[in-house]
Amino acid sequence: MNGYAEIMRMERSRTMNYGADYGEESEIKCPVCSSSDWDFLLKDCHGDIIGCEECVSKIYYDELF
Predict the structure, then answer these.
(1) Quick one: three-class SS letters along 19-43?
(2) On the CB side of 36, how many CA atoms lie within 13 Å of its CA?
(3) pLDDT at 3 (0 to 100)
(4) Whether the Cβ atoms of residue 49 and residue 42 lie closer than 8 Å to each other
(5) H-helix or E-strand containing 52?
(6) Cα dist from 48 to 4, 17, 19, 24, 42, whole Å
(7) Cα(51)–Cα(38) distance, rounded to whole angstroms?
(8) CA distances from 8 to 11, 24, 35, 59 (A)
(9) Most-buried pick from 31, 33, 38, 63 (CB within 10 A)?
């Protein structure tokens, strides 16, 4: 089953009518800094969102020592 079909199946079982309980499209914000001006969100190895590219930064191995 492809991803789209799986989402449709889950929504039908949850709401009995896909999208019936959703209002107008709302602006998605970063859960950490509440910014709505981001290009992508980052998630950890467990699939939890850890922030956007503005509030999360890379640390290279050689910078740790």
Answers:
(1) CCCCCCCCCCCCCCCCCCCCCCEEE
(2) 3
(3) 79
(4) yes
(5) strand 49-52
(6) 21, 27, 24, 25, 8
(7) 10
(8) 5, 19, 29, 39
(9) 38
pLDDT tens string, the chain, 65 residues long: the values are 577 888 877 777 776 665 555 555 557 888 889 888 888 889 889 988 899 988 888 888 888 77
- pLDDT at site 23: 57
Phi and psi angles of residue 6, each rounded to the nearest 5 degrees, phi first: -65, -40
Cα(62)–Cα(64) distance, integer angstroms: 5
Q: Which residues of 30-39 are buried (b: 16+ CB within 10 A; e: fewer)?
A: beeeeeeebe
